[in-house]
Fold each of these.
Amino acid sequence: MSAPVEDRDARPPSLIRRRPELILSPIVLVGLIVLWDVLTRRMGVPVFILPPPMDVWLSLVAGLSVSPFNAGGFLYHTAITMWEALLGFLIGSSVGIMLGFLIAYSRLFEKLALPYIVGFQSLPKVALAPLFVIWFGFGIEGKVMITSVITFFPLLVNSIAGYHSVDPDRIDLARSCNASDFQILRKIILPSALPFLFAGLNVASVLAILGAIVGEFVGARSGLGVLLMQYNQAMQIAPMFAILLILGVVGYVSNVAIRLLERRFCFWAQRGSHFTDGQG
């Protein structure tokens, strides 16, 4: 009689037990939509404060049904905002990682550069955005620069933390084996710092969308930020909510993409976290 029990215990857990969010997330979403509908239709919340879900859905469908090459649709402006965010993300993240490793490697450079970097980072980016528009114009350059500045600091801090997380004994052992600085960087420092770098990339991927929108608020001819300003001035609240939904989806997709890259290139950290969760 013990064999069936052992076979049942040896079965791998079902998908629902391993991924309960696949069931809980849709339930939460439906509950929020129902609550939203009750607030707007049953409790009399004004449309200019909170439009009904159906109005937002119709605005979303109408905006997405337009050709992506037509400036009157959502797809055209979404592509521009995503392109600005992607370029700024790549530039800001790359500079942040390289400068972070340089600061962590050289104590003299850290004392010289870090106070200026922290002081610049403390400046409000909304106040800097008009300057970037003046310097780079109303084209894509200004928005990319704003996004680069916003995404720069998370990678700088995490690359410094990742460099300092390396065990010094491993570096000393590699040097005793006549390893070059480039070999130490590629074989020891980068693999050890990858979990920190991906943590910074997760934050920067969301901040990149914010940077592009801030730049479009200040001065732009196209983009989702421009549409938000236009709908706000015209008091068209339902299309504004539709654009906010698009921004939320874009931010979520970018975060998922970073997590997939993390699972591909930093798989040992993923296994460690799963083991810890299993022990808890």
Amino acid sequence: MFSFRTAGESHGQAIISLVEGVPAHLPLDFEFIDNELKRRQGGYGRGGRMKIERDQVRFLSGVRHGKTLGTPIAMMIENRDWQNWQDIMSVNAADSDAGAKRQVTRPRPGHTDLAGSLKYGHTDARNILERSSARETAARVAAGAVAKVFLRTFNIEILSHTTAIGPVRLPEGFAVSWEQLEAIRNDDTVRCVVPDLADRMVKEIEKGQKEGDTIGGTFEVIARGVPTGLGSHVSWDTRLDGRLAQAIMSVNAVKAVEIGEGVANAYKRGSLSHDEIGYDAGQHRFFRHSNRAGGIEGGITNGEEVRVVGYLKPIPTLKKALRSVDMISKDPFVAQHERSDTCVVPAAGVIGETMVALVLAQAFLEKFGGDSIQETARNYEGYLKQLSEY
């Protein structure tokens, strides 16, 4: 069973990612994996932390001579800012002065600070915020990059683009091409495929920076080459659209998820919402004349592109401080501002790609199995032959 776990704190020694279930003999593309981490750190409106960290993956286990062994893959990403936090984040017992440094008793609205502290019995919210920080997503991107390398062995590719930042958004019904997505793969501004709108998005971010505020938006993740038959209708927790929604919702600041044109379809008649079916005799395959369903019907992939949209709230750490209450004294205060971003939508799209890749890799291996990449390929080729015989 393909699975992954992450560990580590934002200002701890390192972020750790553990991936299990990857078949043996898969050649890994180390340059590609590090570039995925670089993409996560990009985007106009990012904060000072991105200037400190230059993320690279150090493989600790599960790989030999550039290929997977079929055993758990452990990866480490060092936190370069650790040298400034060694006393504050020490795993050993701290003296009273070190323990008091950077203590957080004033929870910030919109963060996990208060809810997490109450749940776990902490009076120092640093014990919560260090793990709930978006820094953890670096480990997810490392795991997702491995999943992407696996998926592209079977010609499945995943990319994303920014569809809105604040009020600036792509027009309804805009159809993005794969060539447009490829053109912005490594874009370091806002990763919008329409240049004029990209310029307006940058100006919107600059306006937010001047006003001491933050900005949300939306991104769309698209996976192409996904075969019919991943996921299942038989149980609530095997439906692939539900699994993708949960995965995208787990990304920091995401508050809503859409599959295909789910939001727009809610306001339309059925005759304008569903995808009519055709058959290509030359390719021996069924196809849809449109893709409003986002490539999933009844919890099962239907052979069209899988499309998922994430909706991000504006991040809650902002200079235009909001009111809160001290956890110990109960006195009201204006929330403290730490180093933060203005807009994270472009980076969130990269993290969204990661989560889609991890879910699709898991679903792919559930269906086709294989202890080695060669065995998985044989099983997959047999299935494709079966589909072509319909």
Amino acid sequence: MVLHRLIGSPAIMADQLEHAAAASERLSMSIHVLPATGANVGLSGAFDVASADGGPDVLRMSGLEDQTTEDRGLTRKAAVTFDLVRRDALPRAASRALIQEAAAQWKTR
């Protein structure tokens, strides 16, 4: 749905989506689009998991306010949630094509 939600102007949307599509071509970058087909576990809120060699995983959850924790149970739950969401996402090439299609549509508005 975010590919079709106007933020800024149509020109800004087209530019941002073209940038995301270009970034998704990098070997070190992976962008997957989650189709807007009902509810999924990812709707519970945004989170980031950071890992470092030798150190504990760190989880940042953003909801009403940002919270950061090293709690192993919560970081594991976030990792499982990420895997569940990614399982329902489109592959990289299909995601890139959908992003490019949305960018082209914004250019015509």
Amino acid sequence: MKKIFLISDFFRPEPGGIEGFFTGIARHWEKYQVEVLVTARASQYMAAPEELKSFDVSENYPVHRNSLRNSTLFFGGNEREFGEYFLEKARKFSPRHMIFGNISPAARILAAGGASMSVPYSVFLDGNDFKNRLGFHRILDRRFVMGAKNVFTLSRYMARGGRELGIPEDRIVVLPPGMENRWEENKKVQLPEAVRNSARGKIVLFGLGPFIPRKGLDLAIEAVSRLENKDRFHLFISGSGPEYSYYEELIRIHDLKSHVTLTGFLPDHLLPAMFGVSDIFVQPGCEREDDVEGLGTALLEASWAGLPTIAGRVGGVEEIVRQGVTGFIIEPGSVDELVKRICELAESAPLRKRLGQNAREIAEKEYDMTRTCAAIDVRL
């Protein structure tokens, strides 16, 4: 495998599927052939400094983290400071290629630094890049993407969108989606007692944030409010985000405090246990032009956990959730259809088992991070 510098805002131990994805790439790359630079500012980390340090030293590859705290990264000389920090690390490591996990001002600066060392780069394209990053008014971001040797995506849907934005066909690479299987090592971890008590004897629905409109998790709350025998069910929603207060208000309005729990962010080692007590994974989805569900790493995780899934027909979701095979696809925004599918799965344990087994078998066969890394290496 070629030596790569993996650069991203998103990396463990921060919670989130995309953080897990890039951590999985680093862990599956050949030893001594990868170093990681996390570009999120120190003030953006949710993890405590000691937790970050403990995680970083436990990995078998170097992890470098941005320590700048300014709310605006490139203000008061920070641009030069950050660029010099990167060049110092890059000269010691001598990478053959840089891979950027996201489009950002930091990525543009570091790509220019790499160019001074004649190091090419590739970039991952995300759903919110379509309008937020690559519109004609974002000329610097467009120039950065168009200068990449490869533009990686995890779905055919994203590849089509990239072509429509003018990215050359020969630079777009659709990777086989991968996920790091960490379920076995954490399967015996105990959830908090309050969560276990709420789940006991219920059909457990599970939704995973971030709490943003494109996930449509507010529709899952609405669906629970319409279930005829809602005492049979409990919905857990994990994560956080700008819609947290809205979800709280919906729960209050519908008097669902005993039927819906917002767990907040779950540490990564608890996530497999949360999947383990769940019966159905829900991600109703919401159609948006400015924030697209490119694929949905949470759907990969649900598949690995062997859960049947109900998901909205948005973005690249249909490339993961297979209608009638691993779950059900519904029209985004249709609470009635969501309720119907929840009831269908709740009434048939054999159906849940069959769909869940199919999902796990497909995940084991197709969502192997080793395949993802091999596909990346071929194009570098």
